[in-house]
Write a structure and sequence with these properties.
The complex is a heterodimer. By secondary structure, chain A is of the alpha+beta class. Chain A has two domains: about 30 residues; about 130 residues, 3-layer Sandwich (Rieske Iron-sulfur Protein). Chain A has three helices and ten strands. In chain A, strands 5-6-7-8 form a four-stranded antiparallel beta sheet, with no helix packed on it. By secondary structure, chain B is an all-alpha fold. Chain B folds into two domains: about 300 residues, Cytochrome Bc1 Complex, Chain C (Up-down Bundle); about 110 residues, Helix Hairpins. Chain B is globular. The two termini of chain B are about 35 Å apart. The chains are: A alpha+beta, B mainly alpha. At the A-B interface, loops of A face helix 7, helix 8 and helix 12 of B.
């Protein structure tokens, strides 16, 4: 053993290089271990778009269909419900959004929502609560006839799934309307 | 050797390693001295029996330990019982969303003694929490978290968190309505994380909602965590043996006269209490096996319908009440985790140097108020989140945190404590109330 030199040696370089390779390699090994928990190919395939025929849905009726394991509410709104949704002062809402932004242009009567409470994931009940929209039985969140949060612990409006009208009476859920309006 | 400081540079040794005899000479904890040649041969190569002997036989414990000190033993027994019944249940259970519910009914109806094993396991979880709450309350009353037992206490908080996780994962496995919606609500806590919340939840689920991938990974983790708990229990006991047990006076033993050997004294006292505890356990298993559960969990999981009144198992109720008391999602989740995490800081939030509540007249009253507040929160957690219940939950939530952040630090400065006994032996001899 010679006296330790203040200058970095070739051996120091090799130590650091080896350690770096080991650290990067170790971190890279974690990628598959963590990534395997994300949705697998079959789950993604089962989450393909679904088509829904709107003809049997009467005015004032809300139906529930499933897409990606989540309930989708399709509400055939009455004139009164649309009016209620539009007369609110938007800026006074907890999660401000105009009703017009929550439906497709010219399809004011059709409201399509992901029926999962934005608080902790329960399924709200239709035509209940103080705002004639949805009421979540778990922790008391209340949504209006546009599916917007009005009262309770939920932070956000009921989200809108991607969907598009194939015809006047048919929609496809899971696919966004790409055409410019 | 498991216990014993090897490095004197760390400072003066804690009590089990600095005991004196009456003459003032250092007290040697008796060690295992094998006479059988086979045992001598083994001990030379692996001192396993010696470790068991010095940990569970000759290890000195304070002679004044009361029955509140028997719950560590009861918890170890329950961990073993849960692992044994759990491994057996796995032999008959099917971890798949299409079969899980029916396989649990199969266990109940077809498997020999399946009903007994399942009821032992499901009620065993509740008994585990009964025991851990008593164990924690004992530590809080007698100041067992104070210097030098901070690490011991923090390991206990980690064990409690692991127990909560394990209990939650296990409750998902029967795949009933409460299983499904409980899993949905709890995993959605993570959606409160800003920016990455939704991605984290999808990653936890392995899908776009709670489903079969979720059930399978929860099953895997429910099987894993008890062994992690067992590992941390070893650390907990190791830390205990480094600093010795606290006792009802909070005054460290000074001579071997203040102590008794672990066996037979503590072993038999633990054993007697364990038998009493098992009577309660057996009463639940044989007479009211579903009393602590929810009828809704006998309805198969249905992703289309949320039960009208969703409540967690009783042992989570105080924290559930805190979650619901706060009208903001992110802050509610932070308060929930904070109410448990705060326990880890207890050794530093309590500023009093006196350990035992027996010598702290004010703290003693606030301790019982704290217990009442926690039980009150639990009761509110079982009620619907509306009207007066929410207001009451907000007041009690405020008090819960005030206990840790205001009352405990201030008490340490303002309280006039009672004089401590000079030794454990003296406290026993002068006690007017003979209890043991």
């Amino acid at each position: 053993m010679t006296a330790t030199s203040a200058e970095p040696t070739r051996r120091d370089f090799l130590y650091i290089a080896t350690g770096t390779v080991a650290a990067v390699g170790g971190a890279a090994t974690l990628v598959p271990l963590i990534a395997q928990m994300n949705p697998d190919a079959s789950t993604i395939a089962a989450g393909a778009p679904v088509e829904v025929d709107l003809t049997p849905i009467a005015e004032g009726q809300v139906i529930k269909v499933f897409w990606r394991g989540a309930p989708i509410f399709i509400s055939h709104r009455t004139k009164k419900e649309i009016e209620e949704a539009r007369k609110v002062n938007v800026s006074s809402l907890p999660d401000p959004q105009a009703d017009e932004k929550r439906v497709k242009p010219g399809k004011d009567e059709w409201l399509v929502l992901i029926g999962i409470c934005t608080h902790l994931g329960c399924i709200p009940l239709a035509h209940q609560g103080n705002y004639d929209g949805w009421f979540c039985p778990c922790h008391g969140s209340q949504y209006d006839t546009s599916g917007r949060i009005r009262q309770g612990p939920a932070p956000k409006n009921l989200p809108l799934p991607p969907y598009k009208f194939l015809s006047d009476s048919k929609i496809r859920i899971g696919e966004e309307d790409t055409a410019k309006v | 050797m498991m216990s014993g400081h090897s490095n004197d540079a760390l400072g003066p040794k804690s009590w089990p390693h600095n005991l004196k005899t009456d003459s003032g000479a250092p007290y040697e904890i008796p060690s295992y001295k094998p006479t059988n040649p086979v045992m001598r041969w083994l001990e030379y190569r692996l001192p396993l029996v010696g470790l068991a002997y010095s940990t569970g036989v000759s290890y000195p414990v304070p002679r004044n330990l009361n029955y509140w000190w028997t719950f560590g033993g009861i918890l170890s027994f329950l961990l073993g019982a849960q692992i044994v019944t759990g491994i057996i249940l796995v032999m008959h259970y099917t971890p798949h969303a299409d079969h899980a519910f029916n396989s649990v009914e199969h266990i109940m109806r077809d498997v020999n003694y399946g009903w007994l094993l399942r009821y032992l396991h499901s009620n065993g979880a509740s008994m585990f929490f009964v025991a851990v709450y008593i164990h924690m309350a004992r530590g809080m009353y007698y100041g067992s978290y104070k210097e030098p037992r901070e690490v011991l206490w923090i390991l206990g908080v980690i064990l409690y968190l692991l127990m909560m996780a394990t209990g939650f994962l296990g409750y998902t496995l029967p795949w009933g309505q409460m299983s499904f919606w409980g899993a949905t609500v709890i995993t959605n806590f993570f959606s409160a994380i800003p920016l990455v919340g939704e991605s984290v939840v999808t990653w936890l689920w392995g899908g776009y909602s709670v489903g079969n991938p979720t059930l399978q990974r929860f099953f895997s983790l429910h099987y894993l965590l008890p062994f992690v708990i067992a590992g941390v229990v070893v650390l907990h006991i190791w830390a205990l043996h480094m600093v010795g047990q606290n006792n009802p006076t909070g005054v460290d033993p000074q001579t071997d006269k203040d102590t008794v050997p672990f066996s037979p004294h503590a072993t038999l006292k633990d054993g007697f209490m364990m038998a009493c505890f098992c009577i309660v356990y057996a009463w639940f298993v044989f007479y009211v096996p579903n009393y602590l559960g929810h009828a809704d969990n006998y309805i198969p999981a249905n992703p289309a319908v949320t039960p009208t009144h969703i409540v967690p198992e009783w042992y989570y109720l105080p924290f559930y009440a805190i979650l619901r008391a706060i009208p903001n999602k992110l802050l509610g989740v932070i308060a929930l985790f904070g109410s448990i995490g705060i326990l880890a800081f207890l050794p530093w939030l309590d500023t009093s140097r006196v350990r035992s509540a027996n010598y702290r007249p004010l703290f003693r009253q606030f301790f019982w108020i704290f217990i009442a507040v926690t039980v009150g929160l639990g009761w509110l957690g079982s009620k619907p989140a509306e009207g007066g219940y929410v207001i009451a939950a907000r007041i009690l939530t405020f008090y819960y945190f005030a206990h840790f952040f205001i009352i405990l630090p201030v008490l340490g400065w303002v309280e006039k404590t009672k004089p401590l006994p000079n030794s454990i032996s003296e406290s026993i001899l002068t006690s007017k109330r003979v209890t043991g």
